[in-house]
Write a structure and sequence with these properties.
The complex is a heterodimer of chains A (about 110) and B (about 120). Chain A has about 110 residues and is an all-beta fold. Chain A is built from no helices and 11 strands. Chain B is an all-beta fold and about 120 residues long. Classes of the chains: A mainly beta (about 110), B mainly beta (about 120).
C-alpha cells in the first residue's frame, strides 16, 4: 500500500501567517489523485483539495494545493481563526486508499 | 442539500458482529460511489471500504479485508457495513462518506457525523 508521511506533525503559527504542510508518498500517486481534508474537534472531515490542486466547492482561494508524483503541499495564506485544525492528505489513486497521519495547525 | 445519517453503532463484545447503516439524501445515490472511513479515539483517519455507484465493485483496507463487508441498496438510498469478528482495535467512530464520482475508490466530498463502535468485554 502507499504510505503517506505528513510533516510537520504540529505547526504553531499566528493568525495572518502562512501555513505550509507537506505530504510525501512512498510511491508515485497515480494521476495525482491526492486530496486534502480539514478536521476540527468533534466534527467530520471536510474536503479542501482534490486532484492535488483543485479546490472543492466553497473553499477559499487562499487555500491551495500543489505537487505531483510523490511530493505534495497544502498552503494556507493569511491564516484565519477557523483554519486552526488538523489536516490530512489522502491518496485515492490505488487501493487500498490511504491517509497521512495528519498535521495539526495550532495557534502560537 | 446532501445529508448522510449513520446508525447502528454501539457496544459489542470481541468476536461479535454489527451492521452499520447510512441513509443518504439530497443527491442521486446510484450515481456516486460511497465509502466508510473510521477514526479510533484520538487517532487519525483510516479508510475502511468503498463501493461503486451500482455496487458492482468493492474495495477494502488490509486491516478489515475478509471481516467487513460493504454493500448498498440503491432503492432505499442506503449504504451498509457489516462488521464481523470484531476486535478491540476496531473501536472507532465510523464515518459514511459520499464519493466524488461513480467509482468506489475516490475522494469524499460529503461526510456524515459518524457512529461510534466500541468493542470491549
Amino acid at each position: 500500500e502507499i504510505v503517506l508521511t505528513q510533516s510537520p506533525g504540529t505547526l504553531s503559527l499566528s493568525p495572518g501567517e502562512r501555513a505550509t504542510l507537506s505530504c510525501r508518498a512512498s510511491q508515485s500517486v497515480s494521476s495525482n489523485y491526492l486530496a486534502w481534508y480539514q478536521q476540527k474537534p468533534g466534527q467530520a472531515p471536510r474536503l479542501l483539495i482534490y486532484g492535488a490542486s483543485s479546490r472543492a466547492t466553497g473553499i477559499a482561494d487562499r487555500i491551495s494545493g500543489s505537487g505531483s508524483g510523490t511530493d505534495f503541499t497544502l498552503t494556507i495564506n493569511r491564516l484565519e481563526p477557523e483554519d486552526f485544525a488538523v489536516y490530512y492528505c489522502q491518496q485515492y489513486g490505488r487501493s487500498p486508499l490511504t491517509f497521512g497521519g495528519g498535521t495539526k495547525v495550532e495557534i502560537k | 442539500e446532501v445529508q448522510l445519517l449513520e446508525s447502528g453503532g454501539g457496544l459489542v463484545q470481541p468476536g461479535g458482529s454489527l451492521r452499520l447503516s447510512c441513509a443518504a439524501a439530497g443527491f442521486t445515490f446510484s450515481d456516486y460511489g460511497m465509502s466508510w472511513v473510521r477514526q479510533a479515539p484520538g487517532k487519525g483517519l483510516e479508510w475502511v471500504s468503498g463501493i461503486s455507484g451500482n455496487g458492482g465493485s468493492t474495495f477494502s483496507g488490509d486491516s478489515v479485508e475478509g471481516r467487513f463487508i460493504i454493500s448498498r441498496d440503491n432503492f432505499k438510498n442506503t449504504l451498509y457495513l457489516r462488521l464481523n469478528s470484531l476486535r478491540p482495535e476496531d473501536t472507532a467512530v465510523y464515518y459514511c462518506a459520499k464519493g466524488a464520482s461513480f467509482s468506489g475508490a475516490n475522494c469524499n466530498d460529503y461526510w456524515g457525523q459518524g457512529t461510534l463502535v466500541t468493542v470491549s468485554s
